[in-house]
Amino acid sequence: QVRASGGIIINTEGYQFHLDPGPGTLVQAKKHNINLRETTAVLVSHSHINHCNDINVVLAAMSHNKLDVKGVLIANNTLVNGNEKTKPYLTEFHKGCVEKTITPEPGQKIGIEDIEIIALKSKHTDPKTIGFKFITPKFTLVYSSDTGYHPDLMKEYANSDILILNVVHSQDKKDSYNLNSEDAINIIKRVKPNLAILSHFGKSMIEANPVYKAREINAITQVQTIAAEDGTSIDPAQYASKTRQKKLESFEGPEITEE
Q1: Cβ 16 vs Cβ 10: under 8 Å
Q2: pLDDT tens per residue, range 56-80
């Protein structure tokens, strides 16, 4: 808990989405005034404990422990069904706390009113890991989840206004299943989002100072880049593409909060 692991909250179009509720989610939600009862959908990218540990308690909080079943769970297959090495993290009781559970494969699209969510291909030690792309009437946001660098990433992340990258390592450390800061530079230069957010820092990134690395990436890519901190909150309307900007006159200001 050098950095908190409660996940990311996206509020837009009157809906609340909760991405990757790891250890300490309830504590962080209370600290940052997040009402979990208002959650429309919980999205879990993979079955590693720092991304899914609190999935059951979040679903219990959403539904008053199943007294008011509501919402949707969109999760990778391992979390829900397990595999030969891992038991399911989701219990049968808590599966019943939501109206529907979806385990999408990469490329699958899920619609929630005017919002389209696309599962993205990832390369990670949980082979069923997925990222998420949110296409809303006002902005497009990509959350990479944990992934190693692979050629399909740029196609997956194309046309994103906001790109959230899980950058585990600084440039002096590299592995096949996580991004480092050099990978982030290559991705950001080619995708060219309006805003890049670096998150999910491992030891080498913390020691290198994420704020410094973000400034370095900003200078190299000429794309506004920030390093997430606990409680970081932004207004995505500021980073919408010009074609969407014209539609924002009545915009009420959704927020994205890092827990």
Answers
A1: yes
A2: 999 999 999 999 999 999 999 999 9
